[in-house]
Amino acid sequence: MKLKFMREFQPYLFESLRTYTKEKFMADLMSGIIVGIVALPLAIAFGIASGVAPEKGIYTAIIAGFIVSFLGGTSVQIGGPTGAFIVIVYGIVEQFGVQGLALATFLAGIMLILMGVLKLGNVIKFIPYPIVVGFTSGIALTIFSTQIKDFFGLTTPKLPAGFFEKWGIYFQNFSSVNIWATAIAVLSVIIIVVTPKIWKRIPGSLLAIIFMTVGAYLLKEFGGITGIETIGDRFAINSSLPGIRPIGINLESIRLLFPSAFTIAMLGAIESLLSATVADGVTGHKHNSNVELTAQGIANMVVPFFGGIPATGAIARTMTNINNGGKTPVAGIIHSIVLLLILLFLGGLTKHIPMACLAGVLVIVAYNMSEWRTFISLTKQSKDTLMILLTTFGLTVVFDLTVAIQVGLLLAVFAFIKRMNESTQVSLTTDLLDISKEIESHSGNLKDEVLHLPRGIEVYEIDGPFFFGVATKFDEKMHEIGDAPNVRIIRMRKVPFIDSTGMYNLETLCKSAKKEKIQIILSGVIDSVGEKLKRSKVVELVGEENICANIHLAVERAIVVNEEIIEKKRRKLKSL
Question: Which structural domain range is residue 161 located in?
């Protein structure tokens, strides 16, 4: 048992090292260096946008990136801070401070580990796509709205958390636009957009930061321009190694932060597995979702002790790793080492990066996250899809991600029940039962293919799962006929499963039939449903002899029982 568990949760790194070669190492080395350079501006931008110091984003990319690659279940996944967390992290910092964020991240890590150990990795993949697109697009719009101040260099009071309130402040203070900041932001966007068309291997965000930082420095030093705000103007940057910090854990804090921690865990699980699935499609490998969730959980339990923020698998950096030749998790480990070296030896230079340039980087991140083409295509599908999509999107923007995911999942469940209810049909036959096109028919014998049902016998067929959503439909069908029959045959050959409510409904039906002196006969019950029936009172109520393997036996039994009931009624009338 222990060996089986170890095999199931073995990190991909250990497997890849068995066949590791010098060629693979050189490919991983080059890719790791490039990904590390690409990750730098994003880590800084995500840290600042999340409401913490810029080095916190770098710490997260280093520590989480190393752990995810070392313990993860994918070959090329790159872990670190992502844009998806910005909104939820900013909200936690505003409400509970950095200590609250540390506890929420730690709790999320525990949840992710539990998801992995309980093998819920495959279940996470079944979260409806409209919910994923809805909250991702909502996050993108929210990120975009948080960058307007720095993009245009506006002078504003402290911005409120609300989306509409924030835009109200922007419109009121738009006259304070800083031309130099706006120019830097616009040029940054242009560089990021144009670079891939010229140099595919060089990240546009890195070029934008280098050029705009140099340009802003020259304007300040030699042009006398003082209105360009940089990271150093807003933050005191620490380019040394982080110390270990305790996390304050108490029941009251856990109670308050549990919903936010759950949202971080769900978001981290969805994004990391989505990234791993995309990577599988490109590399041809198959990731282990449960190992990946466990690694993500360990990463999120560790980073808070070093002042880090939530981390997950990053699709953009993972694809950069693939496109630059990364072969194994070693590339992700090298990416972390590169980031560590940059922090220690070049970290002081980050204070010169203009805030407007980072705003331009995040505007592009928001655009790429928005998936607006997918969003528009989903609006053209069913009404249920449109309702789930717009509700999740709207709640993410107006309220927060926690509410959006909870309500979105609830709507998805209701939509699923509605579709299942519509797909399950209950039909009634009272005279001739044509089974010529069914598997239960006897080919070549017309007599056996059309079964005659004597007066007093009804056949009900349930086509689809018998669960709480269709229990009332079955009841309604039972009461459609005015006269009560002597025998009711219930065909269950097309019932793939029955839940506790369906079982309760069936038991109630059998009890009511017994009081009304109507015999219930079950036909064609499949093995899995039959096992559940044996553990219920249904077998006792109808009798084992009245549970038949097929419709032929059920009708034969029904005719015998019907004649017995008619005979009893005849004798009773004679005695009167």
Answer: 46-377
